[in-house]
Amino acid sequence: MKPERILGLGTDLVEIDRIQDSYDRFGDRFLEKIFHPSEIHYARSQARPSIPLAARFAAKEATSKAFGTGIGASLPWLGMEIGRHPSGEPFLLFHQEGADLAQQRGVTRTLLSLTHTRTHSAATVILIGS
Which fold has domain 5-129? Predict the structure, then answer.
C-alpha cells in the first residue's frame, strides 16, 4: 500500500457581511446556486445564518484552491458540500463533478477546519491521497 501524502492545501477568508449582502440582494436564488439544501437548512437553524453560510462559502473556495482549479466547470459550487458529524466536526463531501475530480486526482480523504470571528469566517482544506 502506498503511503498517504498531501495532494493539496487551500485556505480562504470571507467577510460575513458580504454573504449577508448577497443573500439580501438575491435571496434564495443566491443560496441555491452556492449551497446544498442541507447546508441551507443548517444555517437557517442558527441564530445568525450568515455565519455558517460564510464558513461554508470559505470552505468551498478553500477546496477549489486545494485542487488548484478555482470554482468552475470541473469543481462547481454544488460539486461539494460541507456536512457536520454529530460531534460538530465539519467534513467535506463531493458530488458529481467534484467527485469525478477527486477521483481523478486520487483524493482518498480530506481534512477541513472552519472558524469565525464576529466579522469573518475562514476555512482550511487539506486533500490527502496516495
Answer: Ribosomal Protein L22; Chain A (3.90.470)
Instruction: Pick out the residues of the known binding site for Mg(2+).
Output: 12, 61
The answer to whether residue 130 scores a pLDDT higher than 90 is: no
Q: Higher model confidence: residue 24 or residue 130? A: 24
CA–CA separation, 124 and 61 (whole Å):
9
Q: What is the pLDDT of residues 64-75, one digit of tens each?
A: 999 999 999 999
Helices (H), the chain: 16-26, 28-34, 37-44, 50-67, 96-105
- Only one residue has cell 472552519, namely 114
Residue 116 among the catalytic residues: yes
Catalytic residue among 2, 36, 60, 65: 65
Amino acid present at 114:
L
| Calpha distance 20→25 (Å, rounded) | 9
Cell of 99: 467527485
Rounded mean pLDDT, 96-119: 97
